[in-house]
């Protein structure tokens, strides 16, 4: 075959895979945002079949021949095709070692386990979820054995979400966070400063909260003609192309800021996906480059912007307009302090900026032990609670607020949590660089979010997965990942807030 023909064949297979993946995402979205519960088994079955087709195509003899032929001619190929070949090669090599039938069963297992988890969480009954999680861990450990690993089995899983990340690097990273953040948290607990937050837990009608969420998304330049927001048990973002990016939130009538911050957070993810370059939009490169970089975008909007006093100087008047009874006696400064209050909490997604990484540390340590086979699934509630006591000084009253709180494990996402902590570190480093050319505080105060988005689009978003995490961080900031910016940011902010 001529090179041009091979290339066409390669793109044709990728297009077909995209169609399958598109359909799978749509079924997933539907299942998470209100599709009838009774059809759960049907959906699982269909997802299993579609995933099997993707698997078959990726590993087909045709694809194998395309890869070999294209790899030989890499000098005469364009940049995007070369990057696609590398991406597919990685997936191809990842799956060639996993038997097709086992993979199909696994996808089906995940689809069911998510529903069981939701019910187990609602009933706060870990034993319901336990057999599913046991199967997931067993399968993942088997898959890692099939795929192989260097120095630690968990490294193979980490690399799926954050290319190049290892247990060795993460151990150093978490230790350095522990050294500076744990003492800061203790100092803060001994502070006399009292921050009032009771006004955040008055009754906030959900319809009105929805109005503010819509307003927020418009403000940060989320394109509503290329996206939408719905509700789900656990907020998430899903993308089909830059022209169709969907996010969810979860409203609580007695908690004003939970939905506000999950909307900003998922909005940050959504902006990344909406601003991917057109040249790669319809390829597998047309998505965020890693979970860590993705999380840096959501965290940047949620914390570095969304918990900045200037952000609220601009948006607070609108919030008072929507909730005059609850907020008209509260100053913007009181509101700012309330949304930044640090408190050792039970639930990760409600944790404050300062203690958030400790929640991730706990999950990281547990995942590592599960993959090593050093603990059993049935012991998880006990291990979880004892680590909570050790790091945060609190013990969950039940599994709903403890080990069952996150959807991730029911979805087979092991090696994923560390990217949340990495996201904070990337975000602080990016923001520090952004400050050299943009007056961020002034832009936030004036509500000029489009200028911030323009910077992010140009430096980060438009590249999608064409650049790997280490390239992005180096190209944008001029140095490798460096946790110091995150640590100093936290110290400066919380020392000031708590008069330390
Ligand atoms: Zn996120």
Topology, pairings included?
Blueprint: H1 3-32, H2 40-58, H3 61-72, H4 79-96, H5 100-123, H6 126-147, H7 153-161, H8 167-189, H9 206-219, E1 227-231, E2 237-241, E3 244-249, H10 256-274, H11 291-305, H12 309-322, H13 324-327, H14 332-339, H15 356-372, H16 380-392, H17 418-437, H18 440-446, H19 449-459, H20 469-477, H21 484-497
Parallel strand pairs: 1-3
Antiparallel strand pairs: 2-3
Helix pairs in contact: 1-2, 1-3, 2-5, 3-4, 5-6, 6-7, 8-21, 9-10, 9-12, 10-11, 11-17, 12-14, 12-18, 15-16, 17-21
Bound molecules: zinc ion (ZN).
Zinc ion binds near residues 265 and 298.
- For the report, how would you describe the main beta sheet? 3 strands, mixed
Mean pLDDT: 95
Q: Structural class from helices and strands?
A: mainly alpha
Q: Which ligands occur here?
A: zinc ion
Tell me the CATH architecture of the largest domain: Orthogonal Bundle
Helix content: 55-70%
Q: What is the approximate shape?
A: globular
Rg estimate, integer Å? 23 Å
Percent of residues in beta strands? under 5%
Number of helices: 21
Can you count the beta strands? 3
Quaternary organisation of the protein chains:
single chain
Q: How many structural domains in the coordinates?
A: 2
- Distance from first to last alpha carbon: 71 Å
Low-confidence stretches: none
Q: What does this 3D model show about the protein?
A:
- By secondary structure, the protein is mainly α.
- It has two domains: 3-96, no CATH class; 167-497, Neurolysin, domain 3 (Orthogonal Bundle), CATH 1.10.1370.
- The chain is 64% helix and 3% strand.
- The protein is built from 21 helices and three strands.
- The chain has a three-stranded mixed β-sheet, with helices on both faces.
- Strand 2 and strand 3 form a beta hairpin.
- The radius of gyration is 23 Å and the shape is globular.
- The protein starts with a helix and ends with a helix.
- The structure holds zinc ion (ZN).
- Zinc ion is lined by residues 265, 269, 295, 298.
């Amino acid at each position: 075959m001529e090179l041009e023909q091979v290339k066409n064949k390669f793109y044709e297979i990728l297009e077909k895979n995209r169609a399958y993946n598109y359909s799978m995402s749509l079924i997933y979205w539907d299942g998470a945002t209100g599709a009838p519960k009774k059809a759960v088994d049907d959906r699982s079955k269909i997802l299993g079949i579609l995933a099997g087709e993707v698997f078959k195509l990726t590993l087909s003899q045709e694809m194998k021949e395309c890869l070999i032929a294209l790899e030989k001619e890499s000098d005469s190929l364009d940049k995007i095709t070369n990057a696609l070949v590398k991406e597919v090669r990685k997936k191809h090599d990842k799956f060639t070692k996993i038997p097709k039938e086992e993979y199909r069963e696994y996808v089906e297992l995940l689809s069911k386990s998510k529903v069981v988890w939701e019910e187990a969480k609602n009933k706060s009954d870990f034993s319901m979820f336990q057999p599913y999680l046991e199967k997931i861990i067993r399968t993942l450990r088997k898959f890692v054995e099939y795929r192989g690993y260097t120095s630690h089995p968990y490294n193979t899983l980490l690399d799926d979400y954050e290319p190049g990340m290892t247990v060795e690097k993460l151990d150093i990273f978490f230790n350095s966070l522990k050294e500076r953040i744990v003492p800061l948290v203790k100092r803060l607990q001994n502070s006399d400063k009292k921050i009032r937050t009771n006004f955040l837990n008055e009754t906030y009608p959900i319809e009105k909260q929805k109005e503010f969420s819509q307003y927020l998304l418009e403000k940060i330049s989320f394109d509503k003609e290329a996206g939408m927001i719905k509700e789900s048990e656990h907020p998430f973002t899903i993308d089909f192309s830059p022209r169709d990016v969907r996010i969810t939130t979860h409203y609580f009538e007695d908690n004003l800021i939970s939905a506000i911050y999950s909307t900003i957070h998922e909005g940050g993810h959504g902006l990344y996906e909406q601003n991917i370059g057109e040249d790669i939009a319809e390829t597998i490169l047309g998505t965020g480059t890693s979970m860590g970089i993705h999380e840096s975008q959501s965290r940047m909007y949620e914390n570095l912007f969304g918990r900045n006093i200037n952000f609220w100087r601009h948006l607070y008047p609108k919030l008072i307009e929507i909730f005059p009874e609850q907020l008209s006696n509260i100053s913007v400064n009181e509101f700012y302090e309330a949304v930044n209050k640090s408190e050792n909490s039970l639930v990760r997604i409600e944790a404050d900026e300062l203690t958030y990484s400790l929640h991730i540390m706990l999950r990281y340590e547990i995942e590592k032990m599960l993959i090593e086979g050093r603990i059993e699934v049935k012991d998880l509630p006990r291990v979880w609670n004892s680590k909570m006591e050790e790091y945060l000084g609190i013990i969950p009253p039940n599994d709903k607020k403890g080990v069952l709180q996150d959807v991730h494990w029911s979805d087979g996402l092991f090696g994923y949590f560390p990217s949340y902590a990495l996201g904070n570190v990337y975000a602080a480093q990016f923001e520090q660089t952004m400050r050299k050319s943009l007056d961020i505080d002034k832009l936030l105060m004036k509500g000029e979010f489009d200028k911030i988005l323009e910077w992010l689009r140009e430096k980060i978003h438009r590249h999608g997965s064409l650049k790997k995490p280490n390239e992005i961080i180096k190209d944008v900031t001029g140095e490798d990942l460096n946790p110091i910016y995150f640590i100093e940011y936290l110290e400066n902010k919380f020392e000031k807030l708590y008069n330390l």
